[in-house]
Design brief:
Elements lengths: L3 E3 H7 L6 H9 L3 E3 L2 E2 L6 E3 L3 E6 L2 E7 L9 H5 L2 E3 L12 H5 L12 H16 L1
Antiparallel strand pairs: 1-4, 2-3, 2-5, 5-6, 6-7
Length: 130
């Protein structure tokens, strides 16, 4: 018989969720489906071949379990526990008005560094003394 693992443990082992406690809370909200059926039990047993559909980090994630795992190992080991079947994220034009309103910032843009603020202050001081 194929080995099975608790759903909260699998989410923790696969590094989908930071801790088992957080995984239990997310499962109890109904954000996780196992084989297209909503589950509210963190002790639901999952194994190889099961498909998880999760609403995590504001996107839909679909994973097919390849191995339930035995420990929370490094990320490279965790990625071997599942096959990612997730759909591509929506293009920017198809996002909600709220998400579309958030501006994209290029690298180096944003708040000035401390060094840049000092240079600006020096320029201001030079203008006032003249």
């Amino acid at each position: 018989m194929a080995r099975k693992e608790r759903l909260d443990k699998f989410l923790f082992f696969s590094r989908a969720i930071k801790s088992r406690t957080l995984a239990q809370k997310i499962i109890e909200t109904g954000a996780i489906r196992v084989n297209s059926e909503k589950t509210l039990d963190s002790d639901h047993m999952v194994g190889a071949g099961d498909v998880l559909t999760m609403a995590i980090h504001d996107r839909i994630v679909v994973w097919k379990i390849l191995d339930p795992g035995t420990r929370r190992g490094p990320a490279s080991e965790a990625q071997g526990l599942y096959e990612d079947l997730s759909p591509e994220p929506l293009p920017r034009a198809e996002r909600s008005p709220y998400e579309a309103a958030i501006a994209q910032r290029s690298d180096g843009a944003g708040r000035p560094t401390k060094k840049e603020r000092r240079e600006t202050d020096r320029l201001k001081d030079d203008d006032q003394s003249s």
